[in-house]
Amino acid sequence: DLLVVGSANADLVIGVERRPGAGETVLGTDLAVHPGGKGANQAVAAARLGARTALLARVGDDDYGRLLLDSQRAAGVDTVGVLVGGAPTGVALITVDPSGDNSIVVSPGANGRLVPGDVRAAASLFHASRVVSTQLEVPLETVVEVVRSLAPDSRFVLNPSPPRPLPQEVLAACDPLIVNEHEAKVILGGSCVGDRPEDWARILLAKGPRSVVVTLGAEGALVASGAEVSRVPSVKVDAVDTTGAGDAFTAALAWRLGTGESLADAAAYAARVGAAAVTRAGAQASYPTAAEVEAL
Ligand code: ADP
């Protein structure tokens, strides 16, 4: 089984002609509200593929929290680990301009109240999970507690987003650490790392993770473990909306690793899932079933 520990947000989206400056008001389109947050997205993506998936997260006792719980249940996610209360549900206020660029303000809300004690109280979920997948939209001390709570034979997958420097204890547990170009640069501390993603993968691997995956958007991905760095072929599709593609990729990879697949094979499958996700609008709404991945 797959356990996702992470954030759940309501994405509040308004289209604008241009963004307001300080003290200014502009009119936008009707409000659209979508379930989001990296943890919630990953759990839905995995469950839609057919993975037995549980989510450990925290939402507020409010309508957005109920929206998030509903979307998890509709996808078939086990929500026994979704805690309610302590702060309002996390919210992302998103404006989208005509060129498709986003500006986003995130209020972590209840995500910031997912504390190490919540992780310790979920010991039975950890014991039932072969793979545990986490991101950084919850407190770092909670992620540290996740690493300490892993069952002896279970695997830890981390997408460090939003990126920040990681304690050695967390880095050393990653198998793999999954980063895009921006995340790679932050984790490497802005140090000069060469132009080639192969170089970033090697330098990241030398920092302690058991394996590394670098995602490269339309170019596919790289996997690195031991002394080897190999390319994961990209899948050619007409991209409509890349929102949440990275979360779908990570979820698919984590699930396939849990079924015993090699890192290279799991990443190749995940690249197909990521590609399928960019062919439709939205994050969770764009996630494919296993049959849709096969048909790609
Ligand atoms: P993030 O959203 O974290 O920046 P990426 O944009 O690299 O992540 O996307 C994750 C994965 O999804 C990529 O490694 C790739 O396999 C797939 N993907 C993303 N964009 C495209 C695209 N335009 N065409 C095909 N595959 C894509």
TrEMBL record:
Per UniProt, what is one GO molecular function of this protein? metal ion binding
Which of this chain's residues are annotated to bind substrate?
9-11, 37-41, 137, 247
Residue ranges of domain Carbohydrate kinase PfkB in the record:
1-289
Is Zinc-finger one of the keywords UniProt gives this record?
A: no
InterPro entries referenced in this protein's UniProt entry, alphabetically: Carboh/pur_kinase_PfkB_CS (IPR002173), PfkB_dom (IPR011611), Ribo/fructo_kinase (IPR002139), Ribokinase (IPR011877), Ribokinase-like (IPR029056)
Q: Record's CDD domains?
A: ribokinase
Q: Which UniProt keywords apply?
A: ATP-binding, Carbohydrate metabolism, Cytoplasm, Kinase, Magnesium, Metal-binding, Nucleotide-binding, Potassium, Transferase
Instruction: Cite the annotated pathway.
Output: Carbohydrate metabolism; D-ribose degradation; D-ribose 5-phosphate from beta-D-ribopyranose: step 2/2
The UniProt activity regulation field reads:
Activated by a monovalent cation that binds near, but not in, the active site. The most likely occupant of the site in vivo is potassium. Ion binding induces a conformational change that may alter substrate affinity.
- Co-factor remark: Requires a divalent cation, most likely magnesium in vivo, as an electrophilic catalyst to aid phosphoryl group transfer. It is the chelate of the metal and the nucleotide that is the actual substrate.
Q: Which residues form a coiled coil?
A: none
| Name of one Pfam family that matches | PfkB
What's one GO BP annotation on this UniProt entry? D-ribose catabolic process
Positions contributing to ATP binding: 180, 215-220, 246-247
Gene Ontology CC terms, in alphabetical order: cytosol
Question: Where does this protein reside within or beyond the cell?
Answer: Cytoplasm
What is the active site of this protein?
Answer: 247
Keyword check for Oxidoreductase: no
General function of this protein? Catalyzes the phosphorylation of ribose at O-5 in a reaction requiring ATP and magnesium. The resulting D-ribose-5-phosphate can then be used either for sythesis of nucleotides, histidine, and tryptophan, or as a component of the pentose phosphate pathway.
UniProt similarity note:
Belongs to the carbohydrate kinase PfkB family. Ribokinase subfamily. Belongs to the carbohydrate kinase pfkB family.
Q: What is this protein called?
A: Ribokinase
Originating organism? Streptomyces mutabilis
Task: Please spell out the taxonomic lineage of the organism that makes this protein.
Answer: Bacteria, Bacillati, Actinomycetota, Actinomycetes, Kitasatosporales
**What gene name is listed for this protein?**
rbsK
